Records
---
Amino acid sequence: MAGRPAVVLVHGFWGGAAHWANVIVELNKRGFDDLHAVENPLTSLADDAERTRKMLRQIDGPVVLVGHSYGGAVITEAGDLPNVAALVYVAAFAPDAGESPGQISQEKPPAAFDNIAPDSDGYLWIKQDAFHESFAQDLTPDEALVMAVTQKAPLGSTFGDTITAPAWRAKPCWYQVSTADRMIHPDNERRMARRMNPRKTIELDAGHASLASQPVPVTDLIEAAADEAGSG
């Protein structure tokens, strides 16, 4: 396992770095000892991409950059740094140049679209009583309750922020589709995966929080990317 690249995990909307908890434990069990999880402010794509770049610049050697949900847009924008060896998308947005997550969602709205509401300060929240069914229907009610209460709301304007130069056009990438996703339409995930021509795509019978409900196959995908990046 010597020589494996570092892994940097990027969360999405309505959560923080701790959403990766189960994947972190699984990666550690497999001998990955250079693990990092970005805590993004969710105030704009530019802010989040720069925060991610700052972490990437602190790491010597190759990195597998992993994004969940909106975190996929972040790694698409920030993944152009030379030490990024691979990109892994977990039920994630992978916009092209000039595209935003909001635009992609409007083209094929997700099932839980109506359960998202803004507050008076412009932050978007998933209604707490609808969080379980919307974001994490394959977790236990208690697990979903904790996610609902601790959700990290993004500024609504972030949905409209567009990608400049998508890193997936230059870097090898992997994609995981959640077939029961209610936050990003599964067909949108499949379309984004197809056009990036990933090294591998897997489909899981999972809701949006596949990183929490199915950490083993998600980690399998990250490990495959790491092994290929390390051998390269």
---
Amino acid sequence: MPEPSWRTERLGIIAAEQSIIKAGCMWRETLMHDVGIDGQIEHCTPEGLPTGRVVAVQAKSGSSYFKQSDERGVIFHPKERHRKYWESFPLPVILFLYDPGEDRGIWTDARQQLRSNPGSPIIVPFSSSFDPAAVLRALESEGPLPIGEFNPDQIVGQLIGFSTKSKLFDITYFDLLVHGLTDIGRSIHFSADLAYAIAAHNDLIRDEPIGTITYTPHEREFIDGYATFLIANDIARLDYDAWRRLKSDGIFGTFISPLTSRGCKVIERIHFLDKQLAAGPPSGYHQVAMDRTRLFDYRGALERAERVTMFKDEYSHLQHK
């Protein structure tokens, strides 16, 4: 007599939950209106405190899911509605496959695969067992896991200490943070243009003209380290997957990410230190950490506007034929 489907499904959820609990993490199951997400995993500190790092999970239980495979692993064909839902989901979506007969569970980051290979099936490697260590690796889909201890003064010191140490591109993590504040100081902005502007301003302040400012592999590694620092210290919430995919193409992404409660405390500490260290109370533009207006390049805007107008006119013409 075949196993009832509900029982098979529960065995998969239970197997996933056991590994999650053993990893010291929280499991929040979706109890109603499941449209492709069975629950969420939240990372916790060794003391059991939630850190806010969350990934979504879709569990599929049954030996039938393991029948189509090759040397890479199980070949999983998601339904079209699930494919679109997972690809656009705001969190990484961990696909967990469980074979009750073999008591074997394997996993992969489904969102990352769908974004990297649109239209292709999802490959779930046989080697990727969903054990407690794998739970932590799955949570790292959004970048390095948050560091448990938090000291705003220590963070400020580290931000200032991380420098390119290069006259050709003289910036620090601190520069990028305070100059990147936007949305009334509630978010952090980064772009290649911002880094260029900071380096150019630092050049003028030193009164040591160095000529053309260019990115080298050293500066690229430095910028990537800045994004990693923000994530690891839980200062801002970046779309790490988008950043990583653009990086693999040799491009620096642009992000506007909300500051976390930790990030806000770092900015508050900088404001406090600014009053203590600066000559006189900060005011107007004479503040270390303040909102910065984002400048956009409007070169070619007229030509593009003409093109857009032409498109709208042609589209309207076609609709009325």
---
Amino acid sequence: MISQKWKKLVKSLHQKKYREVEKLFLVEGEKPILELLQSGFYVEKLFVSDLFLKKNPDVSLNFELVSTQELAQISAMENNQMALAVVRQYENTMLVPENDLIVALDNIQDPGNLGTILRICDWYGVKKVVCNNQSVDLYNLKVINASKGSFLRVRCFYTDLKNYLVYCVKNFSEALIYASTLQGKSIYETSFQRPAILIMGNEARGISEDILSYVKQEISIPRPMEGGAESLNVAIATAIIVDNFLQRCH
């Protein structure tokens, strides 16, 4: 039986303010838990059901066996009958542009978008994502679920984005800063270089003016003549630009 202490803690971690205080977060479901157990994250507590154990008898980490009813009481998911882990957050460590590409996000609010961007970065081998402090929390369960395990392999750094760019311009002058804007040069006509930082902005408001002042090259995805959509989802746009960047990078 889950103790009241753990019930209270797990339920509190559904909210960002308590995740920030405790430096913990939740991972739920069979596949995410199995991937988590192969990662470098430290698991503070693992609750599993008999159903999970029958399907995965070789789990080596210490766990607490609970009923599916107990899991339902503490879970943020609607139908989690398998497992729930309380996990230690990693340190919010500075990520810098070495000989690679960093995706930087300015006010990305939708957890599904952030999770999908992490998945896209993971697919293309982009290992660093920088988010401004107003972007959605990495440890939001909707972000974790949307990332399909990619949050385990792509590192995120939350910071004041303007100060971060100032630091990079001063200390990594060879790094080019690109930004996706409606007025930018076509990605099909752009000669990309790395190290680089690619800034993607809020779908409704775009990239902040004070951020744009540090950008070396504004880029855009030209709409085909046959196209009718007014804009692209920021995650889809990120996938298109990253794909072209890696194909056309010198």
